[in-house]
Amino acid sequence: xxxxxxxxxxxxxxxxxxxxxxxxxxxxxxxxxxxxxxxxxxxxxxxxxxxxxxxxxxxxxxxxxxxxxxxxxxxxxxxxxxxxxxxxxxxxxxxxxxxxxxxxxxxxxxxxxxxxxxxxxxxxxxxxxxxxxxxxxxxxxxxxxxxxxxxxxxxxxxxxxxxxxxxxxxxxxxxxxxxxxxxxxxxxxxxxxxxxxxxxxxxxxxxxxxxxxxxxxxxxxxxxxxxxxxxxxxxxxxxxxxxxxxxxxxxxxxxxxxxxxxxxxxxxxxxxxxxxxxxxxxxxxxxxxxxxxxxxxxxxxxxxxxxxxxxxxxxxxxxxxxxxxxxxxxxxxxxxxxxxxxxxxxxxxxxxxxxxxxxxxxxxxxxxxxxxxxxxxxxxxxxxxxxxxxxxxxxxxxxxxxxxxxxxxx
Length: 410
Ligand SMILES: [Zn+2]
Hints:
Blueprint: E1 15-17, H1 35-44, H2 46-58, H3 67-79, E2 83-87, H4 91-95, E3 112-117, E4 126-131, E5 151-153, E6 156-158, H5 162-182, E7 190-195, H6 203-210, E8 217-220, E9 234-243, H7 258-279, H8 288-291, E10 294-301, E11 311-320, H9 326-342, E12 353-355, E13 369-370, H10 378-381, E14 404-406
Helix pairs in contact: 1-5, 2-5, 7-9
Bound molecules: zinc ion.
């Protein structure tokens, strides 16, 4: 495998390989007589598939700006002869759902899509779920090229969203398209679900459920080096507000810095990660360090270069494995933070605010827990493929009746 040039790496930019080197996937035995036809079709369509993905990557689609990519895919799905349902989320209705998380903007002009490849009848249905929104590209740091270039270099395509997860969406669409072109009829329906706003809230998938879609099984094309994921990690988001003691800059020694206090909380959260990685076990996630991130991902403090920073706002998240008690994990966080605060001469007497916890000194203001998905049936759990958590934990959340797994693109 050709190493990724470091100059082309960017946080979560990802890459996807089209090189003719040794593929990391496993052959899955397919006894159906159509097996060879399908594989030949995939091989023969390689260049076309790459161009399709490149086109998707060249369409910027940072969360909130998904109109163009959804319009492109809507048109494409129509051209391959699928029944397409495309709709804007009703924000007010969404707010009534227990799975709703507060977001800053609404959904006008940001449609979700379900395209139905209807089966001939008598079979089970399958829903292929994927998102087209991507995280911001920043200010160009870490990029050696236009983030939307979709440039191919050394057999890999580069660009924001190429990995997470336009490649997954492309694979869903093309799989259905190729079956249709081969004239292979399925008994059950295959629903291609292409959603917006996954990176911020997961509301696109939630709204698909609210709209009434369900299936006997679901596959999400999230990323994980082609490792089959028969389960899904969970994630708890939290915020901690720290109030130090204000002071003028000349008499700053009379104040208590929110930045200095915040550093102690960051260290406590790191301690919690170390403890969880050492103690929490799950057979589907043997690499605990990959599965159990517990971090402060955002640290905001102060508001002016020459003013004393008395406050800090820390935002973080905790990864969980299937079956974990989220309330228990939250209480562990609260305990850890409380212990750190008790050792500090200021914080021991000045309570912190912790959102997404019911047991901190002040009441919670909102709850932003991402649920773990149900484990997949035992037959799937026996899959020889290794398990690794996806970059995105928001995979077919609990409100759906379907169990979920992830067939990741590379
Ligand atoms: Zn994703």
